[in-house]
Structure formats: structure tokens, C-alpha cells
Write a structure and sequence with these properties.
Layout: H1 2-25, E1 45-54, E2 62-64, E3 70-75, E4 82-83, E5 88-92, H2 95-119, H3 124-157, H4 164-193, H5 197-222, E6 225-227, E7 232-237, E8 244-245, E9 250-252, E10 257-259, E11 262-266, E12 270-278, E13 293-297, E14 303-311, E15 316-317, E16 332-341, E17 353-359
Antiparallel strand pairs: 1-12, 1-17, 2-11, 3-5, 3-8, 4-7, 5-6, 7-11, 9-10, 12-16, 13-14, 13-17, 14-16, 15-16
């Protein structure tokens, strides 16, 4: 009985092994690729990675950084919105700077009021007071002079009628009255002359300095509203209400780096493509306007002819690797910029990666 069971299990094992071998020997049909790789449209073509940009006559996209640091209180634009030059995009908290502007404005106005006061001298009322003091001093002089004259004539007629001490006192009183008249006359002339030219000049400079400080503070206050430096399209807003931004941009928690607060692209009927040509292929690159190229949109069979724009004549390290097997990790590349008309029926955005082939020289 035991041998019979062993034979049965052995036969079942052999059958299972044969079935497994048959199943694993069946060749499965490979799945079709998601999209066909970009073919080289030229007999001799140079391949390059490309990145779509908003078309600019110089540079890349427009990266906007604030000139002052602060907390975002309001965002006035939307991503994808076309804006004109000078349009407000983001507002920062300007409470402190606004208070400084108001203070310096008041100081400037106070300095102006004092300057106008100096220029308006002499004041009529002050001049009248000085004239009255002069008249009083002259009247006192006449009184003292009369008293001395009387005592002097009496002394000349009869020396015993007036003491020598009284005569001297009367004479001194005249001298004091004359001195008082001189002081009153100088005070009247000083009041009549008005403000000293040096005082006016000094106050003028004080007013100009405070006015310039007020203008500078007002200009700085305007920096708390980030405005569009040129007409264009808002590509990305990398901040939110309540976030703190600085002159270095805004902190990105994903990349742990600093990004521009706003990225803008130009308003144009064209889009740009920046290609990076391997340094070992530069000698095979055609010159300038002789350069012909085509762009392939990844994931599709769509290819678009490109128009040469310019070369950035500075070879730099490559920051992104392609899937080419012959590519070196330490490669340096030359940026070449093309452009193409914005397609009407194809969605394309700045930052999109594309495949580019350039016809060899």
C-alpha cells in the first residue's frame, strides 16, 4: 500500500513539473511602448536635451525677488494671468515703514514752517516792540539830559546850590541813558534786518535733507508692493499670504533652497527652447543662421521646426543628464537658444523638456 502511494505522488510531481515547464516556456507578447522615441530626422544630426522657456531677447524667464523683506499680506495676481508693466503682484506688510514715512513727512513740514518763518522776518509786531523800546530809551535820555543840564547851570551860577556828587550822578545818568539808546537802536536795527542769511541757509539745508529723507522713505515704502517689471505672463507664484519673504526669495520646503517669489514669462507669439550641446560635439555644430533643428515633444509623435536665435558663448557644466549611453557625467555644454511659434492646438508650457536634433555641419 505504501509503495502504491509513493508511486502516485511521484507521478503527480512529474505531471506538475511538466505543466510548470510548459507554462514557463510560453513566450509572452511584449507590450507596445507608451510612445515611440524621437527619431533623428537628419542623416547626420546632433541630439540635445531641450527645455521650453518663454521667449526673451536676452536671458531666460523673469525671476522676481523683493527688494525688501516682509510678510505677504495680499496676492494680487493669478498664475497664468497676463499683466502689464507696473501692475501690482504681491503686497508685503508695510506698517513699520509707513509710520517712518509719516514721521519724516511731519519733520519735513516742521522744517519748512521754520524756514518760512525765518524768511518772513521781521515780524511787524516784533518791529513795533523794538521801536517802542528805542523811543523809551530816547525819552529817558532826554529826561536825564534835562536833569543834568539844569543841575549843571545851577552849579555854574552857584556852586553851593548843587553838590558835586549830585552833579556827577546826573552826568552818569545821561551816559547810562545814551548807552541804553545805543542798545535799543541796535536791537531795533537787528529786528528790522530780519533773519540772518546764515540761519536761513542752514534751515534751508535742514529742510532739503529732511525732504530727501522723506522721499527716500516713500520710495522704500513703494517697494513693499512687488510690481511687474515688464509686461508678461505670471508663470508661478511661489508664496502664500502669511509667508515671510526676503531679498533672497522664498524658502522652498521641498528643495530646501531659495526660489524667486514670482516667475514671469514674456508676452509673445513665440516660445523659446534652450538646448545644451555637448562640448565634444561643438566642432560639428553649424554656424549661426545655418543651424537647422527640429524639436520633438516627448510622449507624442509631434515635431516642430526650430528657428535659431543665439548662442550663449559660455561653456558650463551640464546640470541634467539624458538617457544617452555615451553621455559622460563630467560633460560641459554650450547653451543654444531656438524659438518656435506658439502652437494653437498643442499644450506647451515653460519648463517642459523636449528632444532636439540639430543638423550637423
Amino acid at each position: 500500500m505504501r509503495n502504491k502511494l509513493l508511486m502516485i505522488f511521484t507521478a503527480l510531481g512529474i505531471i506538475a513539473a511538466l505543466a510548470s515547464a510548459y507554462i514557463h516556456g510560453i513566450q509572452t507578447k511584449p507590450q507596445p511602448p507608451v510612445f515611440s522615441p524621437a527619431p533623428n530626422p537628419y542623416d547626420k544630426g546632433i541630439y540635445a536635451n531641450g527645455i521650453v522657456e518663454s521667449y526673451q531677447t536676452n536671458g531666460e524667464n523673469i525671476n522676481i525677488y523683493p527688494e525688501v523683506a516682509g510678510t505677504v499680506v495680499k496676492i494680487l495676481a493669478n498664475e497664468g494671468q497676463a499683466v502689464e508693466q507696473g501692475a501690482p503682484l504681491v503686497m508685503l506688510d508695510d506698517t513699520m515703514q509707513r509710520a517712518v514715512v509719516e514721521q519724516q513727512k511731519s519733520q519735513s513740514e516742521a522744517a519748512l514752517a521754520l524756514l518760512e518763518e525765518l524768511k518772513a522776518q521781521p515780524r511787524k509786531e516784533n518791529l513795533e516792540v523794538a521801536k517802542a523800546q528805542l523811543d523809551l530809551a530816547e525819552a529817558n535820555l532826554r529826561t536825564a539830559q534835562d536833569q543834568w543840564d539844569k543841575q549843571r547851570r545851577s552849579y555854574e551860577l552857584d556852586p553851593k546850590s548843587v553838590s558835586k556828587d549830585a552833579l556827577d550822578t546826573a552826568e552818569n545818568a545821561v551816559k547810562v541813558a545814551k548807552a541804553n539808546v545805543g542798545v535799543a537802536q541796535r536791537q531795533y536795527d537787528l529786528t528790522k534786518a530780519g533773519s540772518w542769511v546764515y540761519d536761513v541757509r542752514n534751515q534751508q539745508k535742514q529742510y532739503e535733507a529732511l525732504t530727501k529723507a522723506y522721499v527716500a522713505s516713500s520710495t522704500l515704502l513703494g517697494k513693499y508692493t512687488i510690481k511687474a517689471p515688464t509686461s508678461g505672463v505670471v508663470l508661478s507664484i511661489n508664496t502664500a499670504v502669511g509667508s515671510f519673504v526676503s531679498t533672497q526669495g522664498v524658502y522652498d520646503t521641498y528643495t530646501q533652497g531659495m526660489n524667486p517669489v514670482i516667475t514671469m514669462g514674456g508676452i509673445d507669439n513665440y516660445m523659446g527652447v534652450r538646448c545644451y550641446i555637448d562640448e565634444i560635439l561643438l566642432q560639428r555644430l553649424p554656424k549661426g543662421l545655418q543651424m537647422k533643428a527640429q524639436m520633438f515633444i516627448r510622449g507624442t509623435d509631434i515635431h516642430i521646426p526650430l528657428e535659431f536665435v543665439r548662442v550663449q558663448p559660455y561653456v558650463s557644466p551640464k546640470v541634467e543628464l539624458s538617457s544617452e549611453r555615451t553621455e559622460r557625467v563630467d560633460v560641459r555644454v554650450l547653451p543654444v537658444i531656438f524659438r518656435f511659434p506658439k502652437p494653437k492646438d498643442i499644450y506647451m508650457y515653460p519648463g517642459q523638456l523636449v528632444d532636439v536634433y540639430i543638423m550637423e555641419n
